Amino acid sequence: MMRQVKQFFQIVIFILFLSATSSFSAPPIPARIGGTVTVDGVQFRKGRTVCYIFKVTKQDGESYKPAAEDTDGLSCYDWYLIDIPIFDANNQPSEANSGDTAVIHIFKDGLELVVTSPASGQLIIGTSGSVTQIDIVAGTSR
Length: 142
Hints:
By secondary structure, the protein is mainly β. The strands form three sheets. Strands 4, 5, 7, 8 and 10 form a five-stranded antiparallel β-sheet that branches. A four-stranded mixed β-sheet has the order 3-2-12-9, with no helix packed on it. Strands 6-1-11 form a three-stranded mixed β-sheet, with no helix packed on it. Strand 4 and strand 5 (about 65-70) form a beta hairpin. It has one helix at about 1-20, and strands at about 30-35, 35-40, 40-45, 50-60, 65-70, 80-85, 100-110, 110, 115, 120-125, 130-135, 135-140. It has a single domain (about 25-140), classed as Sandwich (Immunoglobulin-like), CATH 2.60.40.
């Protein structure tokens, strides 16, 4: 009888432990976007984007937290890559929801370029873990 009581309490403690740890989950995998970059008719290659920053914001211009940006230049495949944080009630309550509209920006030496493709820089946020190709076309004049 004593053995059964001991086993019962061990099971209860184990269940309580599992339920407590499951409420502390990691944030969702971000939605990733990436693609080629063409500015003033010239497609960028790795090494050419040292002074450029690529950033995705909410439609109202507010930044995501963590920031959705690429500050280290193009990948070895000549692509910019940006991870957009996805909403999670516990870890990222004010971030992107799948299907939201966001805006991509390009800055050179602190000055914003005009993104013409996608139109007005707008894009639709993918699902957690998605990878979407969005090639950017921009110009330096307004």
